């Protein structure tokens, strides 16, 4: 089954004259390759909460895990809307990405096993998880981690050589 392609727009006011829109294939590869992302969730009082985490890109969604008692997880229970960002942290090279969507908890055992393997493939054996009761369990005994998937609703890419601002819209256009 092929992944639907998003509607892609280049914002000319924030792009160099010779800029082209970044292709979604390039952006999804950058999401897949990123060692670190930042997640923004919303606290119950409306303030933002931002923290770094590791993600895997599987089945056209970013996946992350967190303990059920962590602030970001508590925030997600009240409001599943998130922003995930990653990039190069440089001014004149690379691609910065912003992914907007809703986090949904993954509890299906077969999907969790596939995702656990994706973590090992990307981050190595120290990130090997066991799966039980709809969650990851770390072999070191650090408790359980809940897994969430964020399928992009909208994403933005900020290219820097040349400068460009691309927007991708998914689903309904």
TrEMBL record:
Pfam families: PNPOx_N. The keyword Signal does not apply. Residues 27-130 form the Pyridoxamine 5'-phosphate oxidase N-terminal domain. One of its GO terms (cellular component) is cytosol. Keywords: Oxidoreductase. It comes from the Bacteria. It comes from Phytoactinopolyspora alkaliphila. The keyword Oxidoreductase applies. This is Pyridoxamine 5'-phosphate oxidase family protein. InterPro entries: F420H2_bilvrd_red/Heme_oxyg, Pyridox_Oxase_N, Split_barrel_FMN-bd.
